[in-house]
Amino acid sequence: MLTSLPKVEAFLSALTEQCFFKDENSQGSVLWYIAFYQTRAPNRRKAFRATGFILLFLSISLPFFTQLSPPEIKPQVASGIAWLIALVASANSFFNWQKSWQLYTQTQLTLQFALSEWELQTAAARGASTDEEGVKVLQAALQRLTKIVSEAVANETAQYFEAVKVPDVHSAKNA
Predict the structure, then answer these.
(1) Contact yes or no for 62/86 (Cβ under 8 A)
(2) 4 alpha-carbon distance from chain centroid
(3) N or C: which end of the chain has fewer CB within 10 A?
(4) What are phi and psi of 145, to 5 degrees?
(5) b/e map 24-63, b = 16+ CB within 10 Å
(6) Model confidence pLDDT, tens digit, residues 50-95
(7) The pLDDT of residue 173 is above 90
(8) Nearest C-alpha neighbor of 81 from the set 101, 61, 99, 67
């Protein structure tokens, strides 16, 4: 049976008071970030898949619906379906649901793996032969965890804002 290492337990106890280690309802905690990405990724996946299906359906059905339309409204039917295709494609491009889905899922998994690694390291620290050794393990693991979490969230955020394209009014005027 393992004996309790007082400094290791004190270190871990002190961490539970920090926002970073609170539950998923505490904004800024690792669990909050995981829940954030976990709840948003499926919506982005659904939006991406739905717009993809709608685009496919409208593109394939354009000639069919145009052919079935009475001659006097064929141009309006073709124009209306083409307008819908452009609208759905623009929305998909503007909101970039595929990229968001990918980034949210990737970031969520990175955070979950980092948290699992942290949990393994806390077990290793508790099993250390001395308090000092255990605290060193925890310090290194904590440094790694905070680095991974901050880099993952910062990377997702940066890529999100990189993908947001604001129309350049000056270029449009000169074109």
Answers:
(1) no
(2) 39
(3) N
(4) -60, -50
(5) eeeeebbbbbbbbbbebbeebbebbeebeebeeebeeebe
(6) 999 999 999 999 999 999 999 999 999 999 999 999 999 999 988 9
(7) no
(8) 61
- Residue with token string 């505490």: 26
φ, ψ for residue 157, nearest 5 deg: -65, -45
Spell out the SS3 assignment of the chain.
CCCCCHHHHHHHHHHCCCHHHCCCCCCCCHHHHHHHHHHHHHHHHHHHHHHHHHHHHHHHHHHHHHHHCCHHHHHHHHHHHHHHHHHHHHHHHHHCHHHHHHHHHHHHHHHHHHHHHHHHHHHHHHCCCCHHHHHHHHHHHHHHHHHHHHHHHHHHHHHHHHHCCCCCHHHHHHC
Rounded to two decimals, what is the model's pTM? 0.82
How many residues can be counted in the chain? 175
